[in-house]
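quick one before i forget lol
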Amino acid sequence: MSNPLLEPSSLPQFSAIKPEHVVPAVDELLQRNRQRIAEMTEQPLLDWQSLVGELEQLNDELAQAWSPVSHLNAVANTDEMREAYNACLPKLSEYFTELGQNKKLYKAYEQFSQSPAFTELPDAQKKVITNSLRDFRLAGIGLPEDQQKRYADLQLKLSELTTKFSENVLDATQGWTKHITDEADLAGLPGHVLEAAKQAAESEELEGWVLTLDFPVYYAVMLQADNRQLREEFYTAYATRASDQGPKAGEWDNTDLINQILTLRLELAKLLGFANYAEYSLATKMAQSTDQVVSFLEDLAAKSRPQAAKELEELEAFAQTEEGMSDLQAWDITYYAEKLKQQRFNISQQELRPYFPLPKVLDGLFAVTERLFGVSVTELKGFDTYHDDVRLFELKRDGQVLANCYLDPFARAGKRGGAWMDDCRVRRNIDGEIQLPVAYLVCNFTAPLEGQPALLTHDEVTTLFHEFGHGLHHMLTQMEHADISGINGVAWDAVELPSQFMENWCWEPEALALISGHHETGEPLPEDMLNRMLSAKHFQSGMMMVRQLEFSLFDFILHRDFEPGNTSVQSVLNGVREQVAVLNPPAFNRFQHSFSHIFAGGYAAGYYSYKWAEVLSADAFSRFEEEGIFNQETGASFRTEILEKGGSKEPMELFVAFRGREPEVDALLRHSGIAA
């Protein structure tokens, strides 16, 4: 049978890809790669093309087959696709471990790095080589054979465990629903949520309404449901997903997985000569030491906590005085915070939604991109897809096509929660021809009701800008070698710089005029509403800051101090909360059991990156504040110094080239409404 995963195509043939194609394609590509690498490494004194170029080609062809499979597993999950995906994980883990421990290949890179030809290479190509040599060392190239085998076993097991963690979170999220027949129980919930819940009930041939744990629904309940019991029920179900607590206690439980993952990560780090996994994690990041990271986070916490404590006191006083609520619980915080915000600023996310229809927001986002970076974005029709919601865009500059971008905007069954950018194709030079980059942008917004466009909250608008910032980093790169192209080779604590940077335009009146327009009348966001929204920007920013610092410190300290059999994960989290949090959740809360960023994503001992990069992005944006938020020269400078350079230089070097100095934390505190 012909296999669409093995047929070269500029874009994936999604409609043709079936679960039964996956394993044969991966098997064939891995066998071919192994054979070609064995032949390569028998050749004497390889040059750039016969070594780096050849390896890049092999791995890119493998990535082009695997990328759509991995994507479909995340956005169109079925039992059959999951089974095929999981069957390949050990094969891929084994292959990449072999690659990292291939002594002949390492020797070829080492010899090349010491040859006269290396000294004549451009700096970008030298960076590819030095990164590769570092990665060989981090893959255990210097270990004795028995320890190399153990390293391979650890990588394989970790791949399986982290995938299972993610599956458990998805299954637990979709495994709980609330069926309601009395409309009075739904008081306060907006019309679009009720309509969607009614449709969900009809699809199950039930009377009334069915509410899910998909984030847009969960958040609407927390924010607006007047029924306190309903809020408590939802909070409990959401905060105990995939754990030993709550309504589905023990089902899809991640408790043992968390301990196994942490134990194996520690062993892996020690095998490579690091004291702990946090140290190992920093080997590829900007931060220089574990002490530096902890001090950075604790310093931010010390500066933010007094404000957070004051904000909580204000909220408690409001709930008591205005609402007669003296016993404020975790499921009340969001609800009363929204009421306080409305009282203080007369503004709500619900009031803003009609002004942010998705088509208008996208048009505005693309207009901002064009004004800043000289890049136009147009929609393409008639492409191969896996769902009707998916859209495809083309990016051009000076009439030249630069990249393509898929957008999958709405929450649905079988789709992983959250929002992310992933690469589908990476920019690289193939025999003088440039392969254009292609990005996936995935969000989980509320789907539109019939006859209406999707209406976004301002928070969702910010999420879209954030993910598009990652997308621009991937798509506007001018690098021609896969290892440093786009976000490849970029230190993980700098990867969030472009994404957080783009969020700033969601708060600028000049940009808001482009991204807002009432879905019925087209009128822009009224000035008084805009002013109220801007006034509310820093509402409870102290509480939000300490919450993010709680997650960051928990992740980092857990990976720094974990001792198998001695460390209680819950105790570490409780200890961090005592130090930085102003609000402790109920004892049954199991936030860590669905913390996919660190137990299933790439942020293990790296969640601090969000705050670290926020310092960079706030300071980078301060140059636009000084020179004009649509200053074309400043935009061109950010494009050429940051977005186009990918991983070709160290992030600090790129930042200084753009900003003229090293970053300062003051801009972040100012942007967060927190006094330094």
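fyi The mean pLDDT is 96.
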